[in-house]
Amino acid sequence: MKDNSTTSQIRHKKKPIGFIGLGRMGSGMAKSLLKAGIILIVFDTNKKAMERLTSLGALSGNNPENIANQVDLVFLCLPFAPQVDKVLFGKHGITSKPRSNLSIIDTSTLSPEDASNFSNLLQKFKINYSDCPVSGMPFRAQNGTLTMMFGGDQGAFSQNKPFLKIMGKYIIYCGKCGSGQMMKSFNNIVYNINIAAISEILPLAVKAGLKPSALEQVFTSASSQSFASKYFIPRILNREFDTDFAMIDAYKDIINVQKIATKLQGSIPVTNAMISTYQNTMAIGLQKKPKSAMIKLYEKILNVIVKRD
Predict the structure, then answer these.
(1) In a domain, 309, yes or no
(2) Residue among 260, 97, 281, 117 at smallest CA distance from 184
């Protein structure tokens, strides 16, 4: 449940804020802000995504430059670093006609280095940049219960936390800019390991004679339970492999952690085993499927299909 006093406080701030990037996560986050009474100016290259938000009361921005000239705070939720770079520094980007005292909170998933570089570049324009990647799937973006991992100035975190609390249930300050991205990468690696383990074991267990329905009950209630098992096992048994983020799009988390491990000379054998499964699954043509498609690799090896009995 949201803090009513925080929501009331926000409603009395008449200055609009900007939101750029209205994909599956961004649209849900923007809707949460609108529901809380925030005056929101939105932009996305997808016109239909824009129309969905403006039909709910959002104002339409012509481009990032246009939005930056009307607000003190802009949220970004974009796919990759090149899109963020274009919004910040491209034609009609936020810095095209820079103004001082603008704050940017970037909820995109990037590398820690990209976040730090954007922050350093924007300091020349007197723009404060913070990274704040999110976790929780689109349904949690829709209901405002995301986990949000903030990296940046402590003052910026405190000042903008009321907005974050509208979109998220768990708001964590992680440290300097780039720390939010680092936190998300480590979180997602543990998540990926869980999915890889489920994908490896379920086909073996079915081949050994156990019923998928019984495995589902145990793996979602006993000591093996996890968010990964509760979310993905029902979808695997229903053979639903088209409703979540593509493996290739999520691969950046693996790259981020590999870079950190190499830099710090860390030993990550379990992570490396998961990465092998991840890469081998993409290599057989499943790179555009969700992470649960890793099970198809082991189904192929054992010549078995894990489906609802």
Answers:
(1) no
(2) 260
Residue 188 CA to residue 140 CA, distance in Å, equals 16
Q: Distance (Å, rounded) from C-alpha 197 to C-alpha 179?
A: 27
Say whether both 29 and 108 belong to one domain. Answer: yes
Q: What are phi and psi of 63, to 5 degrees?
A: -170, 170
Q: Is residue 268 part of a domain?
A: yes
- 291 DSSP 8-state letter: G
**Token digits for 94?**
């936020």
Active site residues: 184
- Per-residue pLDDT band for 194 (boundaries 50, 70, 90) equals very high
What is the DSSP pairing of strand 102-106 with strand 127-131? parallel
pLDDT digits (tens, 9 = 90+) for 143-171: 999 999 999 999 999 999 999 999 999 99
Residue ranges of alpha helices (H) inside 168-285 are 179-207, 212-219, 227-237, 247-250, 252-264, 269-281
Q: Which of 25-29, 99-103, 223-227 has the lowest mean pLDDT?
A: 99-103
Task: Identify the CA nearest to 288 among candidates 249, 261, 252, 255.
Answer: 249
- Per residue in 260-274, pLDDT tens? 999 999 999 999 999
Whether residue 19 contacts residue 40, with contact meaning beta carbons closer than 8 Å, is answered with yes
pLDDT band at residue 99 using 50, 70 and 90 as cut-offs = confident
* Integer angstrom CA distances of residue 50 from 21, 37, 107, 185, 209: 9, 18, 18, 29, 51
pTM flag (> 0.85): yes
> For 254, what's the count of Cα atoms within 13 Å in the CB-facing half-sphere?
18
Containing structural domain, residue 255: 183-302
Q: How far apart are CA 114 and CA 97, in angstroms?
A: 23
Assess whether 117 and 226 both reside in one domain.
no
Q: Note the pLDDT tens digit of each residue in 31-55.
A: 999 999 999 999 999 999 999 999 9
